[in-house]
């Protein structure tokens, strides 16, 4: 059974209270609107008001971005790889059966999707994105260099905050598979999250790799 699919409306500031309450119920610290605004301001330092901004998605942002964008293209980040390294006890897991979420960690490379936000919508759409990715503080925004079909792209993305309480570190693949196979929350199951991520990677030409191997391990658990 599928869970709730995120929509842009859910992530608007006036509607974020439900997510805040959910985080607090499972004992997570929540960033304030002022902290998120300050983080966004800092990230956009040096970006001209007339400049478009690219966002790099490597997990659910590839198949459920939930913000307005003008263009998307497959892209690869060098020097970073996706990893199931963040505990999830609220969206695709519970305190009793915690799941895991993807974040970027240093090393290797990562195929994903670059999403271009038009200049006039940069502030409004990144504010929506910050309400999604920066609510608990488990991610850190970073500018990364991507390689896309039309050449290099500078994009903002979200990497693991290793100092955060949700950071799980590098777990054995068998343990990750076990957690993903059994975890479920309001947004669905961990296995569905992995299935959709792999499907999106395959849509952009990936036919093997760590996520495919992990999916085989999850499927083997039934």
Could you name the key traits of this structure?
222 residues, alpha+beta, Hypothetical upf0131 protein ytfp, five-stranded mixed barrel, two-stranded antiparallel ribbon, globular
CATH overall fold name: Hypothetical upf0131 protein ytfp
Q: Counting H and I runs of at least 4 residues, what is the number of helices? A: 8
**Overall mean pLDDT:** 93
Q: Could you give the order of strands across the largest sheet? A: 1-3-2-4-5
Order of helices and strands: HHHEHEEHEEHEEHH
User: What is the distance, rounded to the nearest whole angstrom, between the alpha carbons of the first and last residues?
Assistant: 15 Å
CATH superfamily: Gamma-glutamyl cyclotransferase-like
The CATH level-2 architecture is identified as Roll
Strand content: 25-35%
Number of strands: 7
Helix/strand/pairing category: alpha+beta
How many domains? The number is: 1
Compute the CA-based radius of gyration.
17 Å
| Approximate shape | globular
Q: Residue share in helices?
A: 25-40%
CATH C-level name: Alpha Beta
Q: Low-confidence stretches at least 5 residues in length (pLDDT < 50)?
A: none
> Tell me about the biggest sheet?
5 strands, mixed, barrel
Structure description:
The protein has 222 residues and is an alpha+beta fold. The protein has a single domain (8-220), classed as Hypothetical upf0131 protein ytfp (Roll). It has 8 helices and 7 strands, in the order H-H-H-E-H-E-E-H-E-E-H-E-E-H-H. It has helices spanning 8-11, 17-25, 33-43, 60-63, 122-133, 173-182, 190-203, 210-220, and strands at 53-57, 71-88, 99-117, 139-148, 151-160, 184-185, 188-189. The strands form 2 sheets. It has a 5-stranded mixed β-barrel. Helix 3 (33-43) packs across helix 5, helix 6 (173-182) packs across helix 8 and helix 7 packs across helix 8. It is globular. 36% of the residues are buried.
């Amino acid at each position: 059974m599928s869970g709730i699919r995120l929509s842009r409306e859910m992530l608007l500031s006036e509607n974020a209270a439900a997510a805040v309450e959910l985080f607090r119920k499972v004992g997570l610290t929540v960033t304030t609107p002022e902290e998120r605004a300050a983080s966004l301001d800092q990230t956009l330092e040096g970006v001209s008001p007339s400049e478009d901004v690219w966002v790099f998605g490597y997990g659910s942002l590839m198949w459920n971005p939930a913000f307005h964008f003008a263009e998307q293209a497959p892209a690869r980040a060098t020097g970073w790889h996706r990893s199931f390294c963040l505990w999830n006890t609220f969206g695709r897991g519970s305190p009793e059966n915690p799941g895991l979420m993807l974040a970027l960690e240093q090393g290797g490379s990562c195929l994903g999707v670059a999403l271009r936000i038009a200049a006039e919508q940069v502030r409004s759409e990144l504010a929506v994105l910050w309400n999604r990715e920066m609510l608990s503080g488990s991610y850190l925004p970073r500018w990364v260099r991507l390689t896309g079909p039309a050449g290099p792209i500078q994009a903002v993305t979200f990497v693991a905050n290793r100092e955060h309480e949700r950071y799980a570190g590098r777990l054995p693949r068998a343990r990750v598979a076990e957690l993903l196979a059994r975890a479920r929350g309001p947004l669905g199951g961990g296995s569905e999250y992995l299935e959709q991520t792999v499907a999106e990677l395959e849509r952009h030409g990936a036919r093997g790799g760590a996520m495919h191997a992990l999916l085989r391990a999850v499927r083997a658990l039934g």
